[in-house]
């Protein structure tokens, strides 16, 4: 009887939280799925059900294909930069700065993650400026001609990757630091007694032991990078100043179809595709973690 009362009390206690979560998270997903199956035009009263027609049109949409390709390049580019660099920086902070200054280094690296996206992007836009930017000034020291970072499509893509990596690095380093602090010191002491160098211990002990952390950081970085928007909106403007035109990404394409073309149903189908990508990445993460746990 007591257990039953506790169960009822617990359910009643968490019911408001579940209701809010369902309204804020679950209901919008269901609504997006519903809209994606309709020809939903803001200007039209008639919103007929068209099944998978929006998704079929996506397959032949050149702009969507470009957005998907650019988004994928940005996401995996950020992944390849952030994960190894975050692990190296976390190792340096943990093993080389065990002093009162360690907290200062951790805070300094984490600051870019909490800085608002728009001011950060504006600062980087000045850094990438072709005429007055310090990046081209630095390159000129090595005899490299000034580059049009924000107006050349390829360089714009690279600029977005650099900015996103800079912002994602702090969070990844923090997660790796938690992993390093939970590693068993006895393993490293035994490796040292066997004559292993610091690099050998890092390569053969730290990297394998931190595999779950690496998987989490990798998937979290990919999911965040696939939702890139503000960085592109601010940085990658075209020559006429239209935001985001040099680098078209999925979220920007969705907003353009919604508010410029008034094709809400079509934009919803793009959102569903993005949701599927995120779910697949999450499934891969859990599958790899489960596989590692089964081996143990």
Give structural notes:
- Residues 68-285 form the ABC transmembrane type-1 domain.
- It is found in: Cell membrane.
- The chain crosses the membrane at residues 7-27, 73-95, 107-127, 155-178, 213-236, 264-289.
- The longest helix has 35 residues, at 2-36.
- This protein has a single domain (53-295), classed as MetI-like (MetI-like fold, Orthogonal Bundle).
- It has helices at residues 2-36, 53-59, 62-96, 102-114, 117-127, 134-141, 153-181, 185-193, 198-209, 211-226, 230-235, 250-259, 264-295.
- The chain contains 13 helices and no strands.
- With 296 residues, it is an all-alpha fold.
Shape: globular
Q: Number of DSSP helices?
A: 13
User: How many distinct beta strands?
Assistant: 0
CATH superfamily (homologous) name: MetI-like
Q: What is the percentage of strand-forming residues?
A: under 5%
Reported CATH architecture: Orthogonal Bundle
Structural domain count: 1
Helix content: over 70%
Q: List segments where confidence is low: pLDDT < 50 over at least 5 consecutive residues.
A: none
Secondary-structure element series: HHHHHHHHHHHHH
Q: Based on helices, strands and strand pairing, what is the structural class?
A: mainly alpha
Q: N-to-C terminal Cα separation, in Å?
A: 40 Å
Rg over CA atoms: 24 Å
Sheet of most strands: none
Report the average pLDDT across residues.
84
């Amino acid at each position: 009887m007591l257990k039953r009362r506790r169960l009822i009390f617990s359910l009643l206690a968490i019911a408001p939280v579940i209701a809010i979560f369902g309204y804020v998270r679950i209901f919008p997903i269901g609504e997006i799925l519903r809209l994606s199956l309709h020809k939903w035009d803001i200007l039209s009263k008639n919103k007929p059900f068209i099944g998978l027609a929006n998704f079929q049109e996506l397959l032949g949409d050149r702009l969507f294909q470009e957005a998907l390709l650019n988004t994928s390049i940005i996401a995996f580019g950020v992944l390849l930069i952030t994960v190894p660099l975050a692990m190296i920086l976390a190792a340096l902070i943990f093993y080389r700065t065990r002093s009162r200054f360690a907290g200062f280094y951790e805070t300094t690296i984490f600051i870019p993650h909490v800085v608002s996206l728009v001011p950060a992007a504006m600062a980087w836009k000045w850094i990438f400026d072709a005429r007055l930017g310090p990046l081209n000034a630095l390159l000129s020291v090595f005899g490299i001609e000034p580059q049009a970072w924000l107006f050349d499509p390829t360089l714009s893509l690279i600029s977005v990757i650099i900015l996103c990596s800079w912002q994602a690095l702090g969070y990844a380093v923090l997660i790796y630091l938690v992993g390093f602090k939970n590693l068993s010191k006895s393993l490293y002491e035994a490796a040292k007694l066997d004559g292993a160098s610091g690099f050998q211990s890092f390569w053969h002990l730290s990297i394998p032991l931190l595999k779950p952390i690496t998987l989490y950081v990798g998937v979290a970085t990919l999911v965040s990078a696939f939702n890139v928007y503000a960085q592109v909106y601010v940085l990658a403007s075209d020559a006429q100043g239209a935001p985001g035109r040099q680098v078209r990404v999925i979220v920007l394409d969705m907003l353009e179809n919604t508010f410029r073309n008034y094709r809400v149903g079509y934009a919803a189908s793009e959102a569903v595709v993005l949701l599927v990508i995120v779910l697949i990445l999450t499934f891969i993460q859990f599958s790899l973690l489960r596989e590692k746990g089964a081996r143990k």
